[in-house]
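Exam revision sheet. Question 4 asks you to relate a sequence to its structure. Input first:
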Amino acid sequence: MKPQIICHMLASLDGSLHPSRYTTSPDGTRAEWSSLYEHIHNDMAGDAWIVGRVTMAEMSKAAAHPPANAGQVDRPYHFAQGHAATYAVALDATGKLHFAKPDIGGDHVVVLLGRDVADSHLAELAADGVSYIVSETPDIDLAAMLEVLGRELGIRRLLLEGGAGINGSFFAAGLVDELSLLVAPAIDGRAANQGFVEFGEGGLAGKMQLSLTSCEALVHGLVHLRYAVKPG
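Answer key, structure tokens:
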């Protein structure tokens, strides 16, 4: 069964994901906004969270180190730890992520990979105690991989907290059940500012519907919006 997917994001009034670039506010600091975002993340009690390659690379901070003798590797998946309390999931279609340890903040790492990722990269992940799932189709089938996460690892609630690209892919595929959006009293204002969801030239028009379920004013000037998400 596919896990429940909640897209949980912090954004400025103009949709920016980077608090370091926000204007300041007398109602709260960037650190206070981020802290409250993490507090709500914990309250949602997800079994796992997922981000894209760029976001995970900022956390993993490791260089390539394939083993000298890779040997045979497992496909389509390898689970170094199948009974973790929580999981950190990364979408890395081309196999560019590397890890110095098998967890992020105590959450066991699982990487979702494209079909053509080299065996040497899989051997590196396995040697580092990292779990992975390799796509069995030319293009990554997110729905199929989510089914594996639910069936093999018992993940029932997954918090989608990625960049605009991965968020857009999940929304476009009709996989998101809820949007949890914290809006900070700040503006980015750069011409190149990217919103918290992006999906190519066609956008998401006609692909989804949002229904407001709650709107709550929080401390430090934040507003918490929650929406039920249904296919368009």
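Marking note for examiners. The radius of gyration is 18 Å.
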